[in-house]
Write a structure and sequence with these properties.
12-stranded antiparallel sheet, about 60% strand, single chain, disordered N terminus, mainly beta, globular, about 250 residues, 16 strands
């Protein structure tokens, strides 16, 4: 079943009438921006992944650098109990471009109550809210427990501390992965730091494509007097960059 038309629509908010005898009506068409989060069966995106994991040991901090490729493909859709379409996303990985894809896991995504929701590793995030408008803020981690810690290199870290979502810009032209995208929305999910913690997360969405870029820096340190950049002074955590290189 093709659900493209279901998502690519304009919402009519209402008819505004004047209060005099010569009543005029006008439809107000609002661009919801649903094209930033397409959920069509067969849609796929291939990303290049670059990550650094930090692990503090008795002999010092170990930095583990990993590169590879990720493919996300919508292989099926269904309906949830609210009547919204739920997309089934098959995620496959490989270390080298010439390797065969290996299915890693299955995620889900939906547009429910004017929210683009995505379930990642059993954690539900509100990735976007509609209409997609610069300056809009929301709690994208409302479904995630406040005290949830994530294990990175065997160490527990307060991964989602002080996250606060905001659409920084909408409709900008950008070049990502060597490809030109005419309309890109940038979402900051976290951007704060203190002497011992850095929490930074940012995603970019292109119209009719979806997520085209992601950057994540979740880092802790004990070097409170260090003036080195976080990439140098971090003791625990990770840095991740996910960039589109191919899509249909």
């Amino acid at each position: 079943m093709d659900f493209k038309k279901y998502f690519y629509w304009c919402l009519v908010l209402g008819l505004f009438a004047s209060c005099n005898e010569n009543t005029n009506t006008e439809e107000l068409n609002v661009d919801m921006g649903l094209e930033y989060f397409p959920l069509t069966v067969g849609k796929y995106i291939v990303y290049q992944l670059d990550s650094i994991t930090y692990d503090i040991t008795a002999s010092g901090t170990v930095r583990d650098t990993v590169q590879g490729f990720l493919k996300e493909e919508i292989i099926d859709t269904s309906f949830n109990n609210l009547g919204a379409v739920v997309a089934v996303i098959q995620r496959s990985v490989k270390a080298n471009w010439t390797d065969a894809w290996e299915v890693k896991d299955i995620w889900q995504a939906s547009i429910t109550d004017n929210q683009a929701q995505k379930v990642e590793e059993n954690l539900r995030f509100i990735k976007l809210v509609f209409p997609v408008t610069a300056g809009t803020t929301w709690n994208g981690n409302i479904f995630i427990p406040d005290d949830l810690d994530i294990a990175i290199a065997g160490e527990r870290i307060d991964f989602f501390k002080n996250w606060s979502y905001e659409i920084e810009s909408v409709g900008k032209s950008e070049q990502i992965g060597g490809k030109n995208f005419e309309e890109v929305a940038t979402v900051f999910q976290a951007d704060n730091e203190n002497l011992i913690e850095l929490r930074y997360s940012m995603e970019k969405y292109a119209k009719n494509v979806g997520l085209v870029y992601r950057e994540l820096k979740i880092l802790d340190t004990q070097d409170i007097n260090s003036t080195d950049p976080w990439e140098v002074k971090a003791k625990n955590g990770l840095i991740l960059r996910q960039e589109l290189i191919e899509h249909n």
